[in-house]
Amino acid sequence: MSIRLKVHLSLFIVSLIYAGTFTIAKEVMPAHVKPSAFILLRVSVAALCIFIFHSVTIKERISEWTDIKKLFISAMFGVAFNMLLFFKGLSITTPINGAVLMMNTPIFVVVFAAFLLKEKLSIIKISGILIAAAGAIMLMGGSKFNFSTETVLGDILVSLNAIIYAFYLVYAKSLMKKYHPLTVTLWSFFFGLFLVMPFGASDFMNIQWATFTPSIWAAIAFVTVGSTFITYVLNAYALRHASSSLVGSYIYLQPVLAVFIALISGKDALTWVKALDILIIFVGVLLVNQRQDKEV
């Protein structure tokens, strides 16, 4: 399997996991685990998984102390701040608003990549991102989303999260090229654990573990191992071999996959409008991907 195909497969798996995360996470949060405690749980379990896997397979060390500072910054933007802002924002705004605002991430990725990595801003790449964004917004509800005064704080927090995560995708790329993706991810979660601990320690201590049913434990395992450990590792691998713009553009596949998950579970029906929205998203991602072929 070629590296290019592995990159796209990795990003597809990430989008598929994220597509099911919000529905599955609702089984746990906030009824059984508060948002801040859930973040601490996610980071703790993922850090442990990465540490064990890295110790057995990679065993790579950081060669320069100056990179420790970069890894700490990566942890701030890629692990701590983006998780805290997103979960807090999502608790205030609506799911549709949150999903629509996260569609801004690839646009900010293009901007940061142009300034920090000197990636070229081609008309095709920009057009692809905007086309995919339009399709994703329509698929997530079109005119149904409403940015009212009651959700404005949550909308702002989710928007800040989109900007912060976009910066992480660009900033971490140089580290991914210098070190193994697992090494960068390990240190990011190591620092991230200490950054989120003050916010979630109190709620974490109040978790009633004895009340958890097997389905709750399964949901926790999916979110902590699947949507945290596996997704960060796969994203790190993709960042090592592809442009930040391509990695960011795959966020547009999440609503598409969410629709398919809803169809399979019998919770939604496919209409011609949804089919058209999905086609628009694929056209947009294809335009970004065509510019990427020479880079992967």
Structure notes:
It contains 13 helices and no strands. It is mostly helical. It starts with a helix and ends with a helix. The chain has one domain (3-292).
Structural class of the secondary structure composition?
mainly alpha
Low-pLDDT residue intervals, each spanning 5 or more residues: 291-295
Instruction: Please tally the helical runs, counting DSSP H or I stretches of 4 or more residues.
Output: 13
Domains, number? 1
Choose one word for the global shape.
globular
> Tell me about the biggest sheet?
none
Q: Percent helix among the residues?
A: over 70%
Cα distance spanning the termini = 13 Å
| Average of pLDDT | 83
Number of strand segments:
0
The arrangement of helices and strands along the chain is: HHHHHHHHHHHHH
Computed Rg: 19 Å
Strand proportion, as a percent range, falls in under 5%
Fold topology:
Elements: H1 3-25, H2 35-57, H3 66-92, H4 95-102, H5 105-117, H6 123-139, H7 152-171, H8 173-178, H9 181-205, H10 214-241, H11 244-249, H12 253-264, H13 272-292
Helix pairs in contact: 1-10, 1-12, 2-3, 2-9, 2-10, 3-7, 3-9, 4-7, 5-7, 6-13, 9-10
Structure summary:
The protein has 296 residues and is an all-alpha fold. Helices cover 77% and strands 0% of the residues.
